Amino acid sequence: MKRTTKILLIVAVGLILVGGILGTIGYALGGLKAVNLTSQGVIVASDEGGVLASVDEQWDEITGLDINLDVLDLELVPGDTFKLTGSYDSRLMDLRVSEDDGVLTVRSTYRERWGFGLFGIHETDLGPGLTLTYPRGTKFEQVSVSGDFGELRVEGLDARSLKTELSAGSFTGRDITVQELEVDLDAGSAELDGLEVVDSARMLMSAGRLDLKDSTVENLSATCNMGDFDFSGTLSGRADIKMNLGDLDMRLDVAERDMAYSIESSMGSATLNGRNARSSTQSDASSPKLTLDVSLDMGSADIRTK
Fold first, then answer.
1. Which is more confident, 188 or 162?
2. Strands 93-100, 275-276: parallel, antiparallel or unpaired by DSSP?
3. Of 160, 225, 231, 267, which is the most exposed, with the fewest CB atoms less than 10 Å away?
């Protein structure tokens, strides 16, 4: 047997033994529990999810948000005051909150997220997450939210600029009004209802689903490498949409005669108002309300106008 093979076998057996020991600890403490081998020793999650630290901070005025949460869930919702509340497992997570010249900065980092047990790897419950409230009518200057995992929910937000960058997870929003929007998703989903973008929107999705319902967007640039894109509402200015692998479904509040468009499909199907549009152009609209450019590599596109 080769030396490398022996080393790999020894490591594998060692991991199995560690998993068995930690699983036995969890069973002895009352059943199947997440058991983590960390730099702080062996941590066994309690029924309440560990040692929860509470957050409850309030400010008189906030004009911008700079938030980076590795794995915690986050809600941005209207309320009575500028207030951050929530909880997290302080043994597995560090949280830093600061405010400078009206900009609220929130950073979270996790020490160890995974643990071994008798039944494999367990995902540790890091707590219910955070909620940031702001008075209705607040208009932020710039809002930036990024994270690795977790869920982001935004409601009633008004800002000059909104930028979201998520490695994996979900982004749901309702009644968001911004001048500029950037959405960057590696994997996951974005579902936005009642979105209004005044100047420009750029959306990039590596894998997942993008869904904009009853929305009004000026100058849209959307690239979906793998996944589906659904849009309903009003597009104006210019819309450039590139679908590498996936389906496109659009319900537009504009008449076809008021559009200039180019639709190209390499492999797959494309229809405009029910007719074949795999390679279609229209450029004779005198003053088009929308200039639409759709490029589809594989998948299908179904576009309907009013």
1. 162
2. unpaired
3. 267
* Residue 280 CA to its chain's centroid (Å): 33
pLDDT, tens digit, 9 for 90 and up, residues 106-135: 998 876 544 444 444 444 455 578 999 999
Q: Compute the C-alpha angle 164/253/242, nearest 5°.
A: 50
Angle at the Cα of 304 (from 303 to 306), degrees rounded to 5?
A: 155
Q: How far apart are CA 176 and CA 213, in angstroms?
A: 12
Q: What is the pTM of this model?
A: 0.80
Token look-up 């590596």 returns 206
Q: What is the pLDDT of residues 9-34, one digit of tens each?
A: 666 656 666 566 655 555 554 444 45
Note the pLDDT of residue 49: 46
Residues 305, 298: Cα–Cα separation, whole Å: 23
Sequence-separated (6 or more) residues with CB below 8 Å from residue 28: none
